Amino acid sequence: MKRNYEALKYSIRILNNGDDSYTVEVPKLPGCFSSGSTKEECIANIIEAIELHLEDVDRKERPKEDVFPSIEVIQDAPSSDDYLISLPEACRFLDVSDSTLRRYVKDGRVPAYTFGKEYKFKLEELHQLVHDSRVTPSKKAASGKR
After folding, report:
1. Which among 1, 9, 132, 144 is least buried, having the fewest CB atoms inside 10 angstroms?
2. Could you say which of 1.10.3720.10, 1.10.1660.10, 1.10.1040.50, 3.40.1190.10 is the CATH number of the domain covering 80-132?
3. CATH code for the domain defined by 2-74
């Protein structure tokens, strides 16, 4: 593992998938991720993924390498409340446009989580937004009077 760690140029986050597998991501490089059955395998896989990811990025646009890359390990298996969905998935769930959902985030109506430049959303919190937006019928409408 020491050899793999020495080749690591960016801090990484290893997440327990709860099924004897792990996912690893690079917060500084959105979209750069890998997986493995052990943490050591994740480190080896992400080093290769970083190299492949950076092949498509202009040298001037690459994020600065971390002087002392860290490895954050999240041991707890995810619960159903922890699952995050992407911005396009959240837009489809709420049936709103991308700009509307971004405005909701900016206005504080819906919490969002960022990984690099990407917004992610918890389904539970989107359900709460839907619940809070419910319009209750008036007594006149409920009784059929006009």
Report:
1. 144
2. 1.10.1660.10
3. 3.30.2390.10
